[in-house]
Give the backbone structure.
Amino acid sequence: MVIIQGIGIAPGVVTGKARIWKGKPLGVVGSGAVQAVTTPEEEVRRFDGAVSQAVLELKDLMTILGPEDLSMDILDTHLELLQDPQLAQDVSDKIQAYNLSAQEAFLEVLQHYVLLFEAMEDPYLKARADDIKDMGNRILKYLQQAPFPTQEEASFQAGTILIAEDLSPTDVIKLDTKVIAGIVTQKGNSTSHAFIIARAKGIPTITGCGSELDQISDSDFMMLDGGEGKVFLYPTKDTLDLYAGNGQATQAKVIQLTPTVAVSNNGKQIPVMANASGLEDLDRIWAYGAEGIGLLRTEWLFMSKDRFPNEEEQFELYSNLALKSKGKPLTIRTLDIGGDKPLPYFPLPPETNPFLGYRGIRISMDYPGLFQTQVKAILRAAVFGQFRILLPMIATMEELRWARKQVSIAITSLQSSGHAFESSVPVGIMIETPGAALIADLLAREADFFSLGTNDLIQYTLAADRMNEKVRQLYDPFHPGIWRLIKSIIDQAHAAGLKVSMCGEMAAHPLVTIPLLGLGLDAFSLNPTDIPLIKNNIQKTPPGLAEKVLANLLKMDHAKAVQSYLKEITT
Ligand code: PEP
Ligand code: MG
């Protein structure tokens, strides 16, 4: 038996057979597996087919956005580029002359165009290189038809443990939990979205195993302990027996401890809600005792599609959610793409610092049509449930005002549409940028609630990229600065009469429940599997303890001291 120690990301003990996946996520010009060449005629047909699909997708997007959208001019240019007969001719010539695959030929032609435009003096023409890359990505997506998981997953056997260098959120969102028993990767970080999704789906996951994974081959029998981060290759019978006993005991204990009613501390009701990954796992979420959905990342819903869902489709999605939720509160976050969350059909320009770049509300402001579609669908579905709208990546007052104005525009437009809708849906904001934290008092005047997005708030406050393993030790929820900042946000919100919940992964950390109660946090939202644990922590905190612990913690000057102290008081 070989034991590989990694970092436990999602708990659970499972056995299964290894399946090595070496694919690369799609999304950048030039990436992805090159398909084998068939005949030149077939390759030309494949190229034409990919262009037609890309054109349809773009036209669909333009219909959703509507003619008033600010991005319409750009999209018109992209459509023209896609349909340029010269492009089709160049690719066809390359295929015939050099017996290349459609993808290889297209990449060569694309490269040539990009270089040509990048070398131009005129800044306007120079900037067109980005449009060409964008158009290229649209076609490449259909040409590459990424081999994973669409084709490869079909051949996975039940009980597969996926072994990969790294995984993208798009890869994980499509994994079938009936087939994939566990995930082990070389690289990754607990707040990367691929792993947040794995946790939400309840797939035991281990990361940070590095090159140790090279010793694993396809079909090797293995066991994972996702909580402890241990990978057992060819586990002995003794190890299997030991884990079988422990696993059952822990499971039984957790279920027994799950309070079915809202928990309270010092007489205050503290709802513990779920961060949902999709509609299919709602039954599982309620079984864990969730008292609502505190965060629905709609970009995840959109990731498993091949184009943006239109208003009717989104209305159906959200109203299904309402019907399955039986009156529980539902917080729908508007699209937060960018960072590590690209949509395969919405290429974003390559960026040096994507997390500090084009994401969340910033993209929405460039595509008001997309935002309108989503808001209208939510307002219509809100007739069937208790919805709240949550805005991601707010850093300025203007962004909040823009979004609220858009909600008013959506209401006016719905009034003349004849559709039933709810006009008084609360609009809240994620506090996940230090800029927003510092003007929390001002934002609190115009927002209806706050949700603390600590995954981002910590990375921005401590300048430690949440995806960068090299700075993992700096990305630390115990840092005294994080506590001061959260305290200040909650105090400012409460002074304005606003409630604050936390939906970042920090909310699920068992060591911080007590001081968060001390800060007066009003609600928690976390991955469903940890709900029983956190509810239990809240329930068993005796009156007065949380405030005392917080006061002591705030006197400490470094993260290690905070962590040791919290360990001491929780054991
Ligand atoms: C966060 O930043 O804490 C958050 C919940 O948003 P996301 O992880 O989707 O960026
Ligand atoms: Mg965030």
Notes: The first strand starts at residue 2 and ends at 5. Residues 432, 453, 455-456 surround magnesium ion (ligand 2) (CB under 6 Å). The mean pLDDT is 87.
